[in-house]
Structures are given as C-alpha cells and as structure tokens.
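User: Predict the structure for this protein chain, please.
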Amino acid sequence: GLEEGAKNQFSTFSNFITTINQKKEGIGNRNSPTQLVIPNIKNGRDLPPLCLDVRQKQRMSIDTLPQELKAPFPPEPSLPIRTKTLKDFQDDMEKSKASGDWKAIHNFYSTTFDSFLEINAAFKKDTNSPFNTIEDSGIDANFVNVVYDALLNTPQDVQKSVLKGIINGLLQEWTGPRTKDDLRAYCILLQNPQFSNTSTYVIYAHLLRQIAALTEADHHFLVHWSKKISQKRFKQVVDRLLQFISLRLFPAKPEEFPPMVKCTWWIPSATKVLALFNSANSLISPPIISYTDFYNSTLDHIDLMEEYHNWQCYGNSHRFSFCQYPFIISIAAKKAIIQRDSEQQMISIARQSLVDKVSRRQKPDMNMLFLNVKVRRTHLVSDSLDELARKKADLKKKLKVTFVGEAGLDMGGLTKEWFLLLIRQIFHPDYGMFTYHKDSQCHWFSSFKCDNYSEFRLVGALMGLAVYNSITLDIRFPPCCYKKLLSPPIVPCDHNTLVGICGVTLDDLFQIMPELAHGLNELLSYEGNVEEDFYSTFQVFQEEFGVIRSYNLKPNGDKIPVTNRNRKEYVQLYVDFLLNRSIYKQFAAFYYGFHSVCASYALLLLRPEEVEILVCGSPELDMSALQKSTQYEGYQKTDLTIRYFWDVVLGFSLDLQKKLLHFATGSDRVPVGGMADLNFKISKSETSTNWLPVAHTCFNQLCLPPYKNKKELKQKLIIGISNAEGFGLE
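Assistant: Here is the predicted structure, written as structure tokens:
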C-alpha cells in the first residue's frame, strides 16, 4: 500500500475535488449534466434498478434488455497512438529498479492514467477495433495486471501521478452518453490496488458514484465484462468494495474521511457497484467466487431491524437500505432478522390472545401464550397432524411439546425430541411419503397419487416451526427443494396461482437422481441417430404401487418420436415432469405448510442455500471451536479423560467427526451461529468403564465414563458413534 508519509499529500486531492465542486456550483447551470458532483444517489431517480424491489421478486435480467435500451452506440473518439508493449514495460521496470532512474516509468504511468482515452490507448487489445459487444471487453488483462502489480512498488511521485490522472478523468466534462471506451476505463480503474488505502477513498468514492449512476444498458456491459476478470482479481475488487463500506460505517480514524452527513452517497454507491459484481458472479456456473464472499460481517453490528423496517416501509424507493441488496447481509445477520421478526410476531399474537380472553371476561391462562402440542408416542404422526391442524391460529406462538402420560417440563429438550422422532418416522421408507436415493443420499417426494396430502403439509409446517423456533433438523433434501420453496417467497393472494414451480435443469436432477441425469446427458451428446437407435417418444413411465403408469410430456406425446432435433426439449420436459409436474400436489401442500408458519418478508432476503442452512445447519465442522465452547458436568476441562477425548476427536477423520456430532446432537450439521450455539455438554457417567458412551440428543449431551487410557476411550467412542442408529443402543 501507500506509505504513511504520503497521506497528507493525498489529502490535498480531497481538497482539490471539493474546490472544483464549489467552483462548479458557483458557476451555476451551464448544461453540464456530468459534473463530478452528480445528483445525490440517495435521491437518484435516474439510477438504474440494480436490485429491484425484492418484495416483488423481480430480478433484473442480465441477458435480455428492453428494445429501448438497445440504442445505437455513440461514435468512439479516435485514440492516441501508443506503441509500448507489455515486454517494453517490463524491461523499463527492470532498468528503473537497477538504475534508480524512474523517469520512463513515471512518464508511462502519468500518461496512461491521464484520461479515459489514454487508458484505452494503453490497454485496449486493438485500438482500431470497436469491441462494443458484451462478449469481449477488448481489455488486455495481462497488461493491466502487470501494470497494477508493479504500481505499488514504484516511488510515491509515480503513484501520486496515477491518482492525479484519475482525478482528471473523473472531472471530464461529459457531453453525451458514455462510450464503450469510457466503460472500459471504468472497468480498468475499478481494479486499481491503490483504492485499498483509505487515503484514496475520496477519489474512489467519486469513481464508484459515476459507475453507479450509469444507465442500465451500460451496467449490462460492465456486468458481462466483469465476469471475464480472473478469480483472483475479481475477489480483490469485491473485497475492496466490502472494506470501503465497512470503514465508512466504522472508520478507524474518523478524521480521515469527510463527515458522514456530507457523503451519505458513499455507501449506496459502493453497494450498487458491488451489486454489478454479484450479478456477474451469478451468471457463471459454477460462480467465480462463493456467494458467501459477498457477505459483509460488519453489517452484523448495525441496527439491522431498522434497516429491515425501512425496507418494509419504503421498499425500493429512494431511501437506501441494505435489505434491498440481501447478498451483502450474512446468513447470521439474516437469521437474527428472522428471529427478531418471529419474536415480534409471537408477542403480537400472544398479546392478541390475552386481550381477547380478557375482553370476554375469562381468566387468562399462561398456556394461551404458547403453541401447546400434546401427543402420544404411539400415535405420533396422527396426533401431531391433528394438533397442528386444530391450532392453525397458534402456529406463530412459542412451541411447547407434551408427551401424554409423561411427567416432563419442556425446556427445549422435549421439543427437540418431538422433532427428531417425527422426522425419523415420516421419512422412513415404509411410510411412503418420500423416496430415499442412495446415490445422492437425499430424500425426494414420492409421486404416488393419494386423496389427502395433509401429511406433506405437516412436514412443511415442521420445517417452518424449526426455523421459527431455531431448531436444526436432520433432513436431507436436495438444493432444488429450497429453490421451489421460495417460488414464490410470499404466498400469492390468488389461490389459483401455481406455487412451488421453478425453473429446473439437468444439474438439479443430478443432485437427486444422478444415474438418470447421466443417462439423459448421454442422450444429449449422442452422435448417432437418436430416433432410430433409442426409439423413444415424448411419453414416460412410472411405477406406482406395483402398477406401471404412462404420462405424456406434451399433448399426443406418445405419438411424437424423440429425434436429434427435439431431444433438448424432451430432456427439459422430462426434468420438469420429475421435479415439478409429477409431484405438484405433494409439494404444494408442503409449500403451504411451511409458509403457514414462516410467512414473513424476511424470507425474501434468503437464497435457497441459506434456507437450507437455516433448516438443516451448515456442513462445515470446526471441532476446535466446539472444544472451546463445550460445558462440563462432573469433569474439568483439564481432567485426563477430557484431554484424551479431545486428542482423539481432533484426530478423527471428517466422517467420524460427523458421526460423533450426529450421535450427540441428532444431526451432523452445525447451527448458523456456529458450534457455540450447540450448547454441547460432556457429563461424567458414574458407570463401569466397560460401558459405551451414552448421548442425550435432546440436550446435546454426551455422557462419558472415566476411561483409563486414550486407547480404550477411542475404541469405545468409535463403537458407540458407529452403531447408534436410532435410540435402541442407548
């Protein structure tokens, strides 16, 4: 980065920009619509809807643009002629390092970054080609990378000359729409590593402001060009933007920046530019970086409920809210929003029940503040179904479970046990509601037709109650299920509207039925005559209770042969049939069950992957974090048995660590809040050391006898966790 001594000099750029702005404001209206100080982004009517109102779930299509946006390109001005190549630059750098004479390098940098035209002259692959398509930006990425990598190793006057040049470019008087050369310059300038230094943030902020204020058509180009940036550089730009937002929210040295009231547009501008990179990332499969790399954990420490309420009240109006850009909010923060929203709904409904009771002059009962579920163990599914159907109005109250004939106060353990037992019974293959696919190790909805789909509604309600009451479930649904669960994220008012229907691809089928998906993929790539060799039609067959039934994928499908020309349509219709049409009634009941509990605008903030994590927990294990947060009963953490235990567990393979977690908690996944949220406890078991360890999954408790040595502990622990399916062994 830049040396500390240069900060005072860079601060003059801030004064310089301020002075220019004041002079321009003093001059008055001269029809210069593209001054450095453009209309405040917070009030920016002309800003493109980078993230349209998520409450309506309208997503900007990057691939298609309205006809009016496809305006003719403005003519590109002729570029200066520059002959210096990448090798010439590298040779000059070596000579400068050896001799200490940086004149040639200083001239190169000061000239190259003096204007947008000069940037294009230096880095455009061919100055005679327009490069005005989304497929190719025309930027010589290798040259840009080498020049930027070398920049931070040059003397301060060289680095300052680059920043002065950037200011010149940003202060240019725009007289019409931006050219593709302008967009190329923006794309290149965003990658400048100097913007990692807070002393350059005033310049960086104005760059981001101009990019955020571009038209939707220009953003369209920037998005597609950005997805061609290498993963390393792409991640650097994203990290730089996230750091900019974090340090503006919580500056280490507030005196480094202008007062917040004078630069309220900084954070909205950076967030809008970050949205472009998020769009670019989502265009590629697999994405360039993980969606979690866009999380800004700094936002976990602001008043997110105020952000959430502002978003609920104002939507996608002129008032900025981070909830308009949910990709930047971490899953932990989203969980906090959902929990707070759930708590407020619980309190509201409980209060209303109390008011109704008092208004009827009836004696208030504390039980009316809870969703009280009473079930018999011998009739677990039917009793649960009856209770939830009978108490629809209470689903958003705090859950309390009682097992009939058993004395026990539900402090959380009985609730978790109810979830565990119910899920195990419903997902058992003999029950017939779900089919378990061994190849993918996940469950999917049985397509068998029946008269009553209420039990699917029960499973959906269970998942909703789990999210609502912060319970992690041991459920194995494929990612496609959660995508369907958010289609749409808010239950439509019109009951005739289809729900749980989403766009599905062969990739989605691979996650459920990999063998069938592989066969369909082979059909798509088959080089012979499909019609003669496969002899298939647009009709498929399914076995239901021992009877083979046929279904047409399209009208008269049994008479339409599958050919080389229509095989793509056949595969798409077949995948849609398997994942949407054949299970529509089952999934619709499941969908309505989930949303009967979890109806909240907060769901609009979630990606399908995040819903899965909220329901099932994260698969990422950190046993060292579990060790730090573990509580002990009858043991001290310095006891020999405990030291043996952690030596053994930390040396386990990932598979054995997952088995231990499943044995002790009922799930091999971690809650959103991490291992600390498990409240894991190791208790001393006063039994013989010949006994195996015992687990109370309802309380995340492991009872461990005081084994005499590490070898014995390891042997008994592995036997226990590897043979404890169900509750029999305990």
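Residues 377 and 548 are 37 Å apart (CA to CA).
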